[in-house]
Design brief:
- By secondary structure, the protein is α/β, with parallel strands linked by helices.
- The protein folds into two domains: 224 residues, TIM Barrel, CATH 3.20.20; 70 residues, no CATH class.
- The chain is 43% helix and 15% strand.
- The strands form two sheets. The protein has an eight-stranded parallel beta sheet, sandwiched between helices. The protein has a three-stranded antiparallel beta sheet with strand order 7-11-10, with helices on one face.
- Helix 2 packs parallel to helix 3, helix 3 runs parallel beside helix 4 and helix 6 packs parallel to helix 7.
- It starts with a helix and ends with a helix.
């Protein structure tokens, strides 16, 4: 199984973290992952403070195992979301989209474990210097908002492992047990899985979105909005409109205007498959079903064992 450092740090049985994905990762998903021996994360990025409070309280009723909150630091409600989480006895935070220095002080003072998401080894070093307990190094393959560096997971993981001494969690393009073993072979202490957990029964996203992920094939996602906020999307009518705007040299302001507000909510939560923003990773091409979290976790563990047996006959 491996991953002793990350399992001990987070108090989990398996070195598998569920990514905090907007409109996908509510209390039900987070609790199910934690119950199955991984670490579930409630994705606070799409929530107002009181909704986050409600979801944390619900998760506490569904599991007595550790779970955490994913907190994008650039969101305008970030400070309130952090305070609500602390009030509701959350002590594991995965921060992203900003400098961890904004949150590390009050979180460490409260006795929290803090893990930050990075897209380059330089940022990994800054996180270690800031006092983070671990990092998630997220490669270019990942869904949703992505780093501008466009470093792939296969390259980024060993770069970060060489750059820091704190535990490294690999993310981006991981959906099978074989891929988990590959990440460990590169030096990762554990993995964070997003897209594969988005297409599970317990995910809070709309069934239309889950089925669109299942139907996706190789090459059906692409990173767009690079001059605004880079994001990997499943191709649909909205995606085609953004690409057309980018091809004619639209400004960041024009792209933002076309994006508008609520686009991700309409796509992932409400199921508007053509005009919504469908955030998912390249690994969607490997996803062909919508299992329960328990079924998926057992599958991942079985695949890990089978992969190790194949490599060590």
């Amino acid at each position: 199984m491996g991953g002793r450092r990350i399992r001990e740090l987070l108090g989990i049985e398996h070195p598998i973290v569920q990514g905090g994905m907007v409109y996908n990762s509510g209390a039900r998903l987070a609790a199910a992952v934690s119950e199955a021996g991984g670490l579930g994360l409630i994705g606070a990025g799409s929530m107002r403070p009181e909704l986050l409070r409600e979801q944390i309280r619900k998760a506490h009723t569904l599991t007595d195992k550790p779970f955490g909150v994913n907190l994008p630091l650039l969101y305008k409600h970030a400070r309130e979301l952090m305070e609500v989480s602390l009030e509701e006895n959350v002590r594991i935070f995965f921060t992203s989209a900003g400098s961890p220095k904004k949150a590390i002080g009050p979180l460490k003072k409260a006795g929290c474990t803090v893990v930050h998401v990075v897209a380059s080894p330089a940022l990994a070093v800054k996180c270690q210097d800031a006092g983070c307990d671990a990092i998630v190094c997220e490669g270019f393959e990942a869904g949703g908002h992505n780093g501008r560096e466009e470093i792939t997971t296969l390259v980024l993981v060993p770069e970060c492992v060489s750059a820091v001494e704190i535990p490294v969690i690999a993310a981006g393009g991981i959906a099978t047990g074989a891929q988990i073993v590959a990440a460990q072979a590169l030096g990762a202490d554990g993995v964070q899985i997003g897209s594969r957990f988005a297409a599970t029964v317990e995910s809070s996203s709309h069934e239309n979105f889950k089925q669109a992920v299942v139907a996706a094939g190789p090459g059906d996602t692409h990173l767009v909005l690079k001059s605004h906020v880079p994001v990997r999307l499943l191709k649909n009518r909205f995606f085609a409109e953004i690409v057309a705007l980018e091809n004619r040299g639209a400004s960041s302001a024009e792209l933002a205007e076309h994006l508008g507000s609520g686009r991700a909510r309409s796509g992932m939560l409400e199921g508007d498959i053509e005009d919504g923003e469908l955030e998912i990773g390249q690994v969607s091409g490997l996803i062909d079903d919508v299992p329960t979290v328990a079924e998926l976790m057992q599958r991942l563990l079985r695949e890990m064992t089978e992969t190790l047996e194949r490599l060590n006959p």
